[in-house]
Specification:
With 345 residues, the chain is mainly alpha-helical. Helices cover 47% and strands 3% of the residues. The protein has a single domain, classed as Vanadium-containing Chloroperoxidase, domain 2, CATH 1.10.606.20. Helix 6 packs across helix 11 and helix 10 packs antiparallel against helix 11. It is globular. About 1% of the residues have low confidence.
Length: 345
């Protein structure tokens, strides 16, 4: 019932196929009724959680805009990837109220809010600016073939699987052969799903609290306004990011937050981090150059870090967006594992 409401789909055939797996009995009847009651309770609990108004792409005073040179502005008219833009055009940001949604495992959207961004006139910012300018451009001569593949493999843009979907896909791959019972799997995916929701709330709270410009806007338009004495912080009007730049503030990286939260939670459930496994892209239609490509990892930490740095290789994030997003995602996963749906002794 909760899934039907969330996805606006009846799931008739899916439900029938699932129920057919169990013989008719009083236990089955009671289980179905209990499921309906739980679904109704979840719907009641989340009806006024702030998610509906967050879908409106207006600030509505929920977060104050910064007034200095780091203030975010829309980068371009489209955010999408082939076969076409996922949205018609932009003159506003996406989901500026998302960080105010009632969390599932956190006490508030700001519970794991990260530290502030760099001073735009600082040496640290100059180093970030130059790194992304060289490494993340569409025609970069320093990005390696493998780094380009990583950027596309984890792009997970608006036409694709999305970052939470990609990591749920990975969780299914890793947990399906662990011999877990139905209830243990339900418990595991409830925790993973809730922390993915909270990762989005955390990232969007950071994004709109700090309101930081994207590299593409900074490099193409904004560089002189930073008044950075480093000559590397210079205008490059023709610069384009390697992958599409999303239309919302940079700091922190949603990808990094999603990936770290999921990888940390899977490791906690699995009981170890050093799991060697391989994976193929779920977006081989969107990115045909990934057909036949298999990536290999030796740990969940490596997966999260590769996913996070993909946004640097793609030119859509500052490096600090990634490092701080990873930190926040891991912290909220550990908090959720310890405090949410604890197993009975």
């Amino acid at each position: 019932m909760a899934a039907e409401e969330a996805f606006q789909q009846p799931f008739l055939f899916d439900r029938a196929a699932f129920l057919k797996r169990f013989p008719a009995s009083e236990a089955k009847t009671l289980g179905v009724e209990w499921g309906r009651q739980v679904g109704r309770q979840v719907l009641k609990m989340r009806t006024n959680d702030g998610s509906e108004p967050s879908e409106v792409n207006y600030y509505l005073g929920r977060y104050e805009r910064r007034e200095d040179s780091l203030r975010w502005r829309p980068t371009g008219p489209f955010y999408g990837a082939k076969p076409g833009p996922a949205f018609a055009s932009f003159d506003r940001c996406l989901y500026p109220g998302h960080g105010r949604i009632k969390p599932w495992t956190m006490t508030s959207g700001s519970q794991f809010r990260v530290e502030g961004f760099y001073d735009p006139a600082s040496p640290e910012f100059a180093e970030e600016f130059d790194t992304i300018r060289r490494l993340g451009s569409a025609n970069s001569s320093t990005r390696t073939t493998d780094e380009s593949e990583i950027a596309i493999f984890w792009e997970d843009g608006p036409w694709g699987i999305t970052p939470p979907g990609h990591f749920l896909y990975i969780a299914m791959q890793l947990l399906q052969d662990r011999g877990l019972s139905f209830m243990e799997l339900a418990h595991a995916f409830a925790l993973i799903g809730m922390t993915q929701c909270d990762a989005s709330i955390n990232a969007w709270d950071n994004k709109f609290h700090y309101d930081i410009v994207r590299p593409e806007s900074a490099i193409r338009v904004r560089a002189p306004a930073f008044r950075n004495p480093d000559p590397r912080v210079a205008l490059e009007p023709g610069w384009l990011s390697y992958i599409p730049t999303p239309e919302f503030p940079a700091y922190t990286s949603g990808h990094s937050t999603f990936g770290a939260a999921a990888a940390e939670m899977i490791a906690l459930i699995y009981g170890r981090d050093d799991i060697a496994f391989s994976g193929r892209s779920p977006d081989e239609v969107l990115w045909p150059q990934l057909r036949g490509v298999t990536r290999h990892w030796t740990s969940l930490t490596q997966v999260a870090e590769e996913n996070g740095i993909s946004r640097i290789y793609g030119g859509v994030h500052w490096s600090i967006d990634n490092t701080q997003g990873l930190r926040a995602g891991r912290a909220l996963a550990r908090h959720a594992f310890e405090s949410t749906l604890p197993k009975k002794a």
